[in-house]
């Protein structure tokens, strides 16, 4: 009995000291969530290494490079919604502050360049996973400035890998690109096909893949490469000449302005809604190493649509019925792109949960929410 009373006193004293220390120094963000999660985990854990609940270690530390960009900012929102800890770096080369403004209070954001090795070392400290999205992500821009693309996409990736290796992060997942396949006639594209990059951008992304695989083979740093096929969705920048084609089509059509197709419009793409790419990244982090590490996976919808067909679908969604303008085909662009996604299905459990048309509807709805008027309403007002 006496020992129980002593134990209660000890407990009360320890709790009081703990609460006093919290008054002196407020806890860091997410402290209480972590506290309760870890208490729950300890309580729920069965034998060592054999947790009773399957979802025991929900919270991990993620570094997203290129967090102010289109895909990076979507990744950040999903991770935060899951209660994970997110750190992000960006130099705003193409990313925008407004992409992360609404979540900035919940992020550890650092304005930094991939080329700054010290900053990358600090960014990687304490991270479990690195989702490497930062790049100059544009074929035409790489044609205009191959040195700039190479610096960001190759030198920058190498810096990050050195920092991740030395900080002992668990795994690095890389935003690779379907452009690595180039203009090989075989469709659908599968990962065993030889690479045949055309543009400097495609070469730089393939070099990134090779560096990731090298760091796995030589240093044992776990790496996974995800070859994205034309990702689209909310927060894709429609205002730059280098933007994704769907962001430009949708915003033009919503404004009642004619969209421009470069080429005859018969080139095809495997357009992929951004939520699918986000899910693939999260699966790539947690899939057992034997199935994922050192590999390259296609991440796409597995659906082929020409630009002319895409415009026709968008007419139905946006209400735009005006003409379409055709311009000269762009240097470095490929004719057809369509993915075999069976490897990612088999090893990562990847399933594109949002289809092409559903993704277009969601994207149009998002641009409308941002204030882009429907084509019909715009022409109504201008009458
Ligand atoms: N969007 C697609 O369809 C697609 C397809 C294939 C691959 N990818 C790859 O996915 C990644 C993300 O693409 P996105 O569409 O979100 O592009 P994005 O331009 O919106 O995002 C890239 C981000 O990286 C940042 N960045 C660029 N250089 C940097 C540097 N040196 N240091 C720090 N930050 C830097 C930019 O400011 C930007 O915020 C890129 O690596 C791209 O190559 C995208």
- Compressed to H and E, one letter per element, the order equals HHEEEHEHEHEHHEHEEHEEEHHEEHEHHH
Say what oligomer this is: single chain
Helix content: 40-55%
| Gyration radius, rounded | 24 Å
- Distance linking N and C termini: 88 Å
**What spatial form do the alpha-carbon principal axes imply?**
globular
* Weakly predicted, low-confidence segments: 37-56, 375-383
CATH fold-level assignment: Rossmann fold
| Class by alpha and beta content | alpha/beta
CATH architecture: 3-Layer(aba) Sandwich
Number of strands: 15
User: Sheet with the most strands?
Assistant: 7 strands, parallel
The structural domain count equals 1
Give me the CATH superfamily.
Answer: NAD(P)-binding Rossmann-like Domain
Number of H- or I-type helical stretches:
15
Strands across the major sheet, in which order? 5-4-3-6-7-8-13
Give a description of the structure.
It is a single chain. The protein is an alpha/beta fold and 383 residues long. It has a single domain, classed as NAD(P)-binding Rossmann-like Domain (Rossmann fold, 3-Layer(aba) Sandwich), CATH 3.40.50. Helix content is 46%, strand content 14%. The chain is built from 15 helices and 15 strands. It has helices at 2-24, 31-44, 70-81, 98-101, 117-124, 139-144, 146-167, 200-219, 245-255, 274-286, 289-292, 307-318, 342-348, 356-369, 375-382; strands at 45-47, 50-51, 61-65, 85-90, 108-111, 129-132, 171-177, 223-228, 231-232, 260-262, 268-269, 272-273, 296-299, 305-306, 325-327. The strands form 5 sheets. A 7-stranded parallel sheet has the order 5-4-3-6-7-8-13, with helices on both faces. Strands 1-2 form a two-stranded antiparallel ribbon. Strands 9-12 form a two-stranded parallel sheet. Helix 5 (117-124) packs across helix 7 and helix 12 crosses helix 14. The longest helix has 23 residues, at 2-24. The N and C termini lie far apart (88 Å). Mean pLDDT is 88; it is low at 37-56 and 375-383. It binds nicotinamide-adenine-dinucleotide (NAD). The site of nicotinamide-adenine-dinucleotide has 30 residues, from helix 3, strand 4, helix 7 and strand 7. Nicotinamide-adenine-dinucleotide is lined by residues 66, 68-72, 89-95, 113-115, 133-137, 152, 156, 175, 177, 205, 228, 230-231, 244.
């Amino acid at each position: 009995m006496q020992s129980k009373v002593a134990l209660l006193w000890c407990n009360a004293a320890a709790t009081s000291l703990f609460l006093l220390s919290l008054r002196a120094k407020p806890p860091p963000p997410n402290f209480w969530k972590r506290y309760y999660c870890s208490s729950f985990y300890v309580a729920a854990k069965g034998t060592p290494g054999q947790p009773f609940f399957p979802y025991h270690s929900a919270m991990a530390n993620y570094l997203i490079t290129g967090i102010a960009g289109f895909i990076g900012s979507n990744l950040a929102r999903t991770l935060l919604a899951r209660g994970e800890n997110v750190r992000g770096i960006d130099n705003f080369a193409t990313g925008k502050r407004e992409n992360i403004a609404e979540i900035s209070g919940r992020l550890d954001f650092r304005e930094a360049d991939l080329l700054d090795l010290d900053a990358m070392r600090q960014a990687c400290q304490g991270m479990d996973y690195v989702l490497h999205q930062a790049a100059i992500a544009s074929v035409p821009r790489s044609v205009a400035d191959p040195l700039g693309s190479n610096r960001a996409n190759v030198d920058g990736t190498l810096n990050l890998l050195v920092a991740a290796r030395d900080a002992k992060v668990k795994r690095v997942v890389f935003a690779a690109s379907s452009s690595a396949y180039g203009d090989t006639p075989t469709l659908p594209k599968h990962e065993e096909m030889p690479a045949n990059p055309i543009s400097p951008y495609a070469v730089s992304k393939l070099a990134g893949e090779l560096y990731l695989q090298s760091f796995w083979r030589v240093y044992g740093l776990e790496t996974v490469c995800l070859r994205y096929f034309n990702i689209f969705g909310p927060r894709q920048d429609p205002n730059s000449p280098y933007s994704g084609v769907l962001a430009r089509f949708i915003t033009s059509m919503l404004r009642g302005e004619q969209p421009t197709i470069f080429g005859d419009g018969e080139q095809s793409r495997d357009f992929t809604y951004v939520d699918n790419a986000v899910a693939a990244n999260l699966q790539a982090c947690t899939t057992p190493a034997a199935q994922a590490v050192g590999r390259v996976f296609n991440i796409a919808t597995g659906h082929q649509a020409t630009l002319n067909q895409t415009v026709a679908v968008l007419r139905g969604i946006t209400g735009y019925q005006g003409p379409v303008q055709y311009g000269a085909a762009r240097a470095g662009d490929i004719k057809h792109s369509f993915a075999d996604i069976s490897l990612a299905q088999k090893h990562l459990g990847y399933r594109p949960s949002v289809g092409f048309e559903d993704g277009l509807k969601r994207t149009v709805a998002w641009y409308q929410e941002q204030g882009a008027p429907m084509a019909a309403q715009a022409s109504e007002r201008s009458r």
